[in-house]
Amino acid sequence: MSSYQELTARQRIPAMFDAGSFEEFLPPSMRIVSPHLAQLDAAVSFDDGVVVGRGKLGGQVVFGAAQEGGFMGGAVGEVHGAKLVGMLQRAIDERAHAVVLLLESGGVRLHEANAGLIAVSEVMRAMLDVRAAGIPVIAVVGGANGCFGGMGIAARCANTVIMSEEGRLAMSGPEVIETANGVEEFDSRDRALVWRTTGGKHRYLLGDCQVLVEDDTEALRAAALDAIADIPVSGAPLTLDGLLAEQAMLERRLHDTQGLTEPMDIWKGLGMPDPARVPMLEPDAFLELAAQHRATPTLGER
Amino acid sequence: MNHAEGRWTGQQRNRSERLARAGAALGGALDGKVVQASHIVELLHAVLEPGDRVCLEGNNQKQADFLGKALTRVDTARVHDLHMLLSVLSLPEHLDVFEKGIASKLDFSFSGPQAGRLAKLAQSGKLNIGAIHTYLELFARYFIDLTPRVALVAAEMADRDGNLYTGPNTEDTPAIVEATAFKSGIVIAQVNQIVDKLPRIDIPGDWVGYVVQSPTPYYIEPLFTRDPALISEIQVLMAMMAIKGIYAEYEIERLNHGIGFDTAAIELLLPTYAASLGLKGKIARHWALNPHPALIPAIEAGFVESVHSFGSELGMENYIRARPDVFFVGPDGSMRSNRAFSQAAGHYACDLFIGSTLQIDLQGNSSTATLGRIAGFGGAPNMGADARGRRHPSKAWLKAGEEARAGRNVIPRGQKLVVQMVETFREHMAPAFVDKLDAWQLAEQAGMAIPPVMIYGDDVSHILTEEGIANLLLCRTDEEREQAIRGVAGYTPVGMARDKRMVENLRDRGIIRRPEDLGIDKRMATRDLLAAKNMKGLVRASGGLYDPPKRFRNW
Amino acid sequence: METLNYRFEGGQRPLSGMPQLVGVVGSGNLEILIEPAHLKGACEIEVRTAAVGFGATWQAVMADFHARWSLADARVSVNDMGATPAVVSLRLDQAVESIADLPGGAP
Fold first, then answer.
1. What is its EC number (chain B) (predicted)?
2. Which of A15, A243, B132, C23 has the fewest CB atoms below 10 angstroms from its CB?
3. Which residues face B366 on adjacent strands?
C-alpha cells in the first residue's frame, strides 16, 4: 500500500500513468510563472502549481494533469488555468482516448482576482468540450487539501469522480462556512464532522462521487482505468437526459435531507445501518453496504 | 484537654471547625460526603480561610475545572490572599483568582497556554510567585513546607463513602491527596459520576472530605498525540541517527521520550529502521512514557515490553485495555497513571532521556524560556538530569560514566544519557543555538533569582542535530565542549563561528559524528521509513482499537 | 522576496540530461530546477526567497553545495518559501541525484 495523498503532483503523475510514458507540456524549465504573483512580490512556482501533458494509460493515449496542493493550496491562477485549458483543447485536437485529472485545489486563486475566476470557468467549459468530443473525463480527488470552490464544481463536470475517503469534495471550505455563519453552523475544527460532510464516503453515498477506493496509488490507477473502460462508446458527452437525471437526483436529495443537519442522519435516511460506524469501516465493507443504499442519478426519471 | 495538649492539635481542631461550618452552612445540601453542585460556593466559603494554601488540579491533562471556576466566585471579603499550588496553570480561571484578589501567591510547575498572562499579572504585582518547580519537586514540597490545607481535585467517579476512581488520568491526585489528608487538610473532589460501586478504588474515602458531581465531565487535553503526516524528512534523519548512533551504541533498554515530532519519528522508526538493524529485543524495552499513539507500531512489533505513564492520552483507552501486559492496568481493566512515580522512574530507572528544546547555549544549557512568557518547567528537568543518587548499574549507565571519566583521576561512576535533539533552525529561521539564552533576560524582566534553565549543560551527554551528534561526555575542556556544540550547530551564527580545525579534530576523535560517520545514507531518510505515515495508519496498526480525538481525523 | 545570485567556477562534474524539478513551493519548503547550461564550466545558482536578509546563510550553504558536488555547466534555480538550511541542502542533493540518475523523459 503506497499512499497517494503523501505524494506531490509530480510524483503522482508517473504513478498513475504507464511507466516512463508521460510527456509534460510547458515544463518548469520554460519558467511560465504567474505574472500576478510576481507583481505582488509573492513566491512563484515554475509550473504555477500544475503539471499537464500526455502519456499512456493501459497502453492508450491519455491526456492528464496533476494539481500541486502544496503550492498555494492548489488554487487556480491564470497560468495554471490556461495550462489546464490548453491541455484539454489539445486532447480534443489529438483525439485522446481519455483525460485524467488529478485534482487538489482550494478553487480560484484569490490573489489573481478576475483572472483566476475566468480561468476556472474556462476549465469547466473546456472539460465539457472534451466530453462533447466523445472523450471521457475522469476526475481523481484524493489529496490532503481536497477539491473545493470552483474546482469542486469543475470536478462534477467530469464523467466520473473517483475519491479516496481521505479526499474531500465541496464548494465552500469548512473555515469559510464557520467564518461566515458561525461555529454553531459548522465547527471547522471538528475534523470528523468536516470529513462526514465533504469526504469521499459521504460524497459516494450522496451520489456525487461514483467510485471510492483506498488511499493507494495502485488502487486509484486501477480505478481510473476501469472508469475509462466503463464509459460506453459515445457515452462521454453530457446529454440532456443525463443532465435531467442528475437534476432529478438533486431534487430528491433536497427533499430527502430537508431539515437534517448531521450527515449521519442523512445516511440513516438512505437506509445505511449503524451510521456512526460508517467512517471507521474499511473500504470493502463500506462499499458492500453502500451499494444497496447510495443515491444515484436514474436515467429516464421524470 | 489541657493547655499543653491543645498546643499540638491546632491543625486538627481547626479542621473540625471548618467541617462543622460546612455542615451548618450546607444543611440538606450535604448528604454524608456528597455535596450538591449548586452549593459548591457555599462549601468553599465554609472550608476556606484567608491565607490558606490551596492545591488545585491543575494537572498536565486533567483539570478540576468545575472547582476552579467555583473558586473564582467566592466573596473576597470572606476568602482572600490564598496561596495557590498548581502543577499546571492551564485554564483562565487559574489566573482569574489573582485578578479578583482571591489569591495572591503562587507556587507551580508549568503554565503552558497561560504563560503570557501569568507574566503580565506577575509584573502588575497582583500575583506573587513563590517559586517555579518541576512536578516532582512540587509534589515533594507538599510533604515538607508547602502542604496544602485544602485540595481541590478531580476524579472519574466516587461512591457515597468518598472513595475515588481516578482511572487512566490518575496523574497527580495520589500525591496531592496523601499530603493534604495526613496533615489535617481537607480534600474536595469533583467527579463525573457518583456510583454505587467503583471499578476500583484509587483514593480511599477516609482521605476525602467532600465529593461533588460536576454538571459536565472534566476536560482533558490530548497533549501527546502527534500526527505522523507532519513528520519531516529531516526529523526522520535525526531519528535514524538517534537509533543507530545512540540507542544501538549504548544499548538503551530503559528510556523516556520528551514529547515532540522528533521523538515521535524515533518511535515510528523502531519497527522499521531499528528492526532492520537487528535491534528488536535489544533497545527500547521499558518506558516511562505517556501512552503515545505513535508508540503503537513499536508495541505491536514486539519492541516494547512495559510502559509506565505519567497520565493518559485521549483515544488510547481501549487500546490500553487490550494490552494489559504492556501498560499498568488495574484488575478492572483500565490503566492507572501516576505522575510522581513516573517522574521518579524517569529520573532513577531510565538510562536515557531524549527531548527537544528551543535554545541551547555554548555550554549546552538549554531553555524553553521566551520573553514575556513565564512557562515553567514541567517534568523535563527530572528526566533530563543525571541521577546522582542512583547506584544500580546498567550497560548504558556504565558506558556513559566511563566515557565521561576516562583519563581523569576520579572514582568510577555511571551516568545517565541526557540527549538534546534539535534542528539547528526553528520556524522563521530562528537559530536554536545562541550565545546567550533568552532565559537571562527573562530572569531580569521577571525578577527571578537565576535564569530558568530546563536542562543544564553539565547534565547533557549528547546533542543531536541534522548535522550530527556531539558527544559531550568525551570532551575534556570547556573549549572542546564549546567547539563540539558549534560543530553540530550547522549554519547558525554559532555554527558558522566554529574553529574549523578544532571541529575536524573532534570529528577524527569521534566526539562529533556526522550521518556518514554513522554509516547512514541520507537518501534513505524518507517518510517511507515511518511505520505509520498518518493517523489512519496508527488506527490500523492498533487493529482499530485506537480512537483518535476529532481534531486528528482526516477521514 | 529577495533574489540572490551565485556563480562557482572550477567545477569538475559537467551536467547533462533533461532539466529536473524537485520540491514544492510551500511553507518551509522550496523547489529547485536543475538543468545543464553553457556557462563556460561554471555553476550558476539563482535563489528567489521569501525569507529576506539571510544572504550570508545562503552563501555558506551554496559554497558547501559546490564543495560537495563540484558541478560544471549547471544552472540551479530556486523558489524558496522559508526553508531552513537543512531542507535547502537536502533538496539540492535531491536535485542533483534526480538529474544524474534519470534516463530523461519523466517530469
1. 2.3.1.187
2. A243
3. B360, B455
Among the partner-chain residues C60, C61, C87, the one whose CB lies closest to the CB of B234 is C87
- The partner residues of A51 in beta bridges, in order of sequence, read A66
- The Cβ of residue B449 has, within 10 Å, a number of other Cβ atoms equal to 7
What integer pLDDT is reported at residue B447 of this predicted model? Answer: 87
3-state secondary structure of B359: strand
Taking the Cβ of residue C80 and every Cβ of chain A, the question of whether any pair is shorter than 8 Å is answered with: yes
- Supply the Cα-derived Rg of chain C in whole angstroms: 13
Rounded alpha-carbon distances, angstroms, from residue B21 to B17, B30, B207, C94: 6, 12, 19, 74
Query: Which residue's entry shows cell 494539481?
Result: A67
Q: Is the peptide bond before B58 cis (omega within 30 degrees of 0)?
A: yes
Work out how many CB contacts closer than 8 A connect A with B: 35
The length of chain A, given as a count of residues: 302
pLDDT beyond 90 at C101 = no
Query: A73: nearest CA in chain C?
Result: C26
Under an 8 A CB cutoff, do B428 and C61 touch? Answer: no
In which band, very low, low, confident or very high, does the pLDDT at A132 lie, cut at 50, 70 and 90? very high
B147 CA to centre of own chain: 21
pLDDT band per the 50, 70, 90 thresholds, residue B369 = confident
Q: Which residues of B touch A165 (CB under 8 A)?
A: 555
pLDDT confidence of residue C106? 31
Which of the four pLDDT bands, split at 50, 70 and 90, describes residue B67? very high
pTM of the model: 0.94
Would you say the C-alpha torsion C62, C68, C69, C73 has a positive or negative sign? positive
Apex C99 CA angle, C93 and C105, nearest 5:
145
- Report H helices in A31-148: 35-39, 78-93, 113-132
A51: part of which helix (H) or strand (E)? strand A50-57
Mean pLDDT of the region B519-532 = 96
Q: Of C54, C90, C93, which has the smallest distance from its Cβ to B429's Cβ?
A: C54
Instruction: Map out the domains of chain B with their CATH numbers.
Output: 10-220 (3.40.1080.10), 222-350+520-544 (no CATH), 352-513 (3.40.1080)
Residue B1 scores a pLDDT above 80: no
Give SS3 for B257. Answer: strand
The b-or-e profile of A76-93 (16+ CB within 10 A means b, else e) is bbbbbbbbbbebbbebbe
8 Å CB contact of C57 and B423 = no
Whole-angstrom distance, CA of residue B197 vs CA of residue B200: 8
CA–CA distance, B445 with A163 (Å, rounded to integer): 55
DSSP state of B414: -
Map out the domains of chain C with their CATH numbers. 2-99 (3.30.230)
- pLDDT value of residue A77: 97
Confidence (pLDDT) at A298: 73
pLDDT at site B3: 63
Q: Which three cell numbers stand for residue A189?
A: 475544527
Selecting from B232, B428, B491 the residue whose C-beta is nearest the C-beta of C85 gives B491
CA distances from B52 to B17, B102, B358 (A): 15, 11, 37
Nearest to B553 among A3, A192, A201 (CB): A192
Q: Which residues contact B352 (CB under 8 A, 6 or more apart)?
A: B246, B247, B250, B252, B254, B255, B256, B396, B416, B417, B418, B419
Residue C28 Cα, gap to closest chain A Cα (Å): 11
User: Residues 386..445 of B with a Cβ closer than 8 Å to C: which?
Assistant: 423-425, 427-429
Interface predicted TM-score (ipTM) of this complex, two decimals? 0.91
Distance of residue B525 Cα from the nearest chain C Cα, in angstroms: 10
Kindly tell me if the per-residue pLDDT of A28 is higher than 60: yes
- The DSSP result for A183-243, as a single string, is TTT--TT-HHHHHHHHBHHHHHHHTS-SEEE-S-HHHHHHHHHHHHHHSPTT-SSPPHHHH
For the stretch A273-278, contacts whose Cβ atoms lie closer than 8 Å and that sit 24 or more positions apart, written own/partner, are A278/A201
